Amino acid sequence: MRRHVRSLGIAGALTASMLLAGCDKPVPKVTVQRGAFSTTITPSTYCFDSVHCRTASGLDFPVIDAGLDERIMVDVPRDLLGKGWSVTALTLDGTKPLGSSGTIHDSHSYRVAANTNNGNPFVVQVAQLRKGKPDGSKWSFLVKVSDQT
Q: Degrees (nearest 5) of the Cα angle 48, 34, 118?
């Protein structure tokens, strides 16, 4: 009986340590470029699998300033490329889609037109896919448009 209890205790400790180790895994970052300006974006939520997701503590969206006729390049790491990904432009409140890339499997980059919202600011959201559907992993940034950038 004692051997059985000890085995259960060891198994429980190993399971707990593996779950905690999953929380310490690095998450992929997405790079956004406009001309010579480049920034990396940490995900607001990242799912390692269908059960283990990590949510960021704060949601400060990076801001990309762009001219009305510019294009912003979104570049993802190979981890996302292998699973599939998509880009969606949304209104500032996130309620109305302005456009979407559809599923991307064959490229690590995608360009977003700064005039997507007729010169008004908008949110760009990158989503990781699993079996063609969003898995909950999201990277977001705000695009501010001006005619003098």
A: 95
Phi and psi, residue 48, nearest 5°: -75, -35
- CA-only gyration radius of the chain, Å: 19
How many CB atoms neighbour CB 58 within 10 A? Answer: 5
pLDDT tens-digit series, residues 96-121: 999 999 999 999 999 999 999 999 99
pLDDT at 13: 45
What length does the chain have? 149
Q: Round to whole Å and give the CA distance between 13 and 63.
A: 43
Listed in sequence order, the residues at least 6 apart from 148 whose beta carbon sits closer than 8 Å to its beta carbon are: 67
